[in-house]
Amino acid sequence: MARVFSKKQIERYASPQRIAALGRQVTETLNAHPRVQWLESPYVQLFVCQNFISDEDCDLLIDMIDSDSQPSTLYEGTEREGYRTSYSCNVDPNDPDIRRIDKTICDLMGLPQSHSEVLQGQRYQVGQQFKDHHDYFHETEKYWEYEGPNGGQRTWTAMAYLNEPEKGGATAFPQLQYQVEPRRGMLLIWNNMSRDGKPNIDTLHAGTAVEQGAKYIITKWFRLNEWQKAWVR
Ligand SMILES: O=C(O)CCC(=O)C(=O)O
Ligand SMILES: [Fe+2]
């Protein structure tokens, strides 16, 4: 059973008012961007930007992922056999290329790098997948004890496809009956929160199993508050 936070702490770590305001701010920024398309869904705020990562950067990131990946993990207390079978790596946040690529994502969304987690790389080989999950934190789980004070709720997700698997590997949103096919260089962005600033259960999604070839992505999660762990300025 997770520790119970005081009202004041809850207000700081997952304030619906601040999350809702952040949602409006990012939506406005993305809507104003000529290259960002809004994927119209009444249930989830979902956006794409084609050719966001250059071919050169896709190759560079794929090499980094190949050289540094470990089996992906899930939060303590939420592990389930076969649930997330990809390989992940936390790319080096001090690498100048990573800093540059990371910053372009933050700039596109109009969010400060300090309020985001370090980019994560992932590789899925044939049969590997990341089953249905939410990116936001479930505040009843044990991990919320340290994730709450360490940046607060995960608000927005930005994910880029670095290649195209020959078969399979789409990102599926079962509640929307919608899936996104990987396209090299494409950035997919969504708000994990509802317009009222509370977790949006309709953001349930999965990295479906790769059937042929491999799939490489980078994922970046934004937080309500400053993420205290990492950014070396
Ligand atoms: O692989 C995908 O398409 C989804 C990945 C994902 O959901 C995540 O990294 O949180
Ligand atoms: Fe996810």
Automatic annotation (TrEMBL):
Its cofactor is L-ascorbate. Transmembrane segments: none annotated. Pfam families: 2OG-FeII_Oxy_3 (PF13640). It comes from the Bacteria. InterPro entries: Oxoglu/Fe-dep_dioxygenase_dom, P4HA-like, Pro_4_hyd_alph, Pro_4_hyd_alph_FE2OG_OXY. SMART domains: P4Hc (SM00702). Residues 115-224 form the Fe2OG dioxygenase domain. Keywords: Dioxygenase, Iron, Metal-binding, Oxidoreductase, Vitamin C. PANTHER family: PROLYL 4-HYDROXYLASE ALPHA SUBUNIT, TRANSMEMBRANE PROLYL 4-HYDROXYLASE. This is 2OG-Fe(II) oxygenase.
